[in-house]
């Protein structure tokens, strides 16, 4: 049976990046495995990210630097013209198997399906983290454009869509952490935003809350979800997550103290 190419659902891949010249090429190449259209949103990069993107992306837009990607999600999706939009970050990669599964699924997707959740394989220091709550780490990344409602600006938020969300089987790869320096930089950047959002929500922090949050995160990631089974990278991740929780709550306490002066 011959299928008219023009009748196939068109797929856009939306990538949001800032200062990712070392990773953006591999990201864009992997996106082409799936995309009929690649839309790159550059968040005021000061390196060659946007220039490199011109060689691979079909469209490039600029968005103000805000420190994390969620505020630009809705903007990027609205700039896409595909029937379906796959959301991909610069440190993530689409695999040939995933691309094949997606193309097959959307051909037969019922109109009641608004999005697909895709398992994400997280790699730290080149090691796939299979414990600690990091697998299968489903992310709602393939969205029917007509079903998209909104993407909250909160860090690590999920999109709001109309219709059913179905899980896929094949994962996409997330090369999250390459160095301790990168982990520390991310903690500084993310903890500031998270603490600001908690302050706006009226959340309070004190020593008891800090300790309770830290112990809770350590137990959840390390013991209950067995994060230490992933060896040294897993142990580093458990301790890092515990530290990140502490820094966020410490920043919140600092904001409270500044307001009380």
From TrEMBL:
Top-level division of the source organism's lineage: Bacteria
SUPFAM superfamilies given in the database record: Nucleotide-diphospho-sugar transferases
InterPro entries for this protein: Glyco_trans_2-like (IPR001173), Nucleotide-diphossugar_trans (IPR029044)
Pfam families, per the entry: Glycos_transf_2
Coiled-coil blocks: none
Glycosyltransferase 2-like domain ranges (all copies): 12-141
Protein's UniProt name: Glycosyltransferase 2-like domain-containing protein
């Amino acid at each position: 049976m011959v299928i008219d190419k023009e009748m196939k659902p068109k797929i856009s891949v939306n990538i949001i990046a800032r200062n990712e010249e070392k990773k953006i090429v591999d990201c864009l190449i992997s996106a082409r495995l799936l995309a009929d259209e690649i839309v790159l949103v550059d968040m005021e990069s000061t390196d060659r990210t946007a220039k490199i993107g011109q060689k691979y992306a079909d469209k490039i837009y600029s968005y103000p630097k805000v420190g994390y990607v969620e505020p630009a999600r809705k903007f990027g999706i609205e700039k896409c013209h595909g029937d379906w939009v796959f959301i991909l970050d610069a440190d993530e990669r689409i695999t040939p198997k995933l691309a094949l599964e997606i193309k097959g699924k959307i051909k037969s997707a019922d109109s009641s399906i608004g999005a697909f959740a895709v398992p994400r394989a997280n790699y730290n220091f080149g090691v796939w983290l299979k414990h600690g709550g990091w697998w299968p780490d489903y992310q709602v990344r393939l969205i029917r454009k007509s079903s998209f409602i909104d993407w909250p600006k909160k860090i690590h938020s999920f999109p709001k869509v109309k219709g059913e969300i179905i899980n896929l089987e094949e994962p996409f790869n997330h090369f999250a952490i390459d160095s301790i320096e990168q982990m520390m930089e991310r903690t500084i950047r993310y903890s500031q935003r998270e603490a600001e959002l908690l302050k706006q929500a009226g959340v309070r922090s004190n020593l008891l809350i800090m300790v309770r949050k830290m112990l809770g995160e350590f137990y959840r990631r390390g013991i209950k979800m067995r994060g230490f089974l992933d060896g040294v990278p897993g142990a580093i991740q458990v301790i890092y997550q515990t530290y990140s929780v502490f820094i966020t709550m410490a920043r919140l306490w600092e904001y409270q103290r500044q307001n009380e002066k």
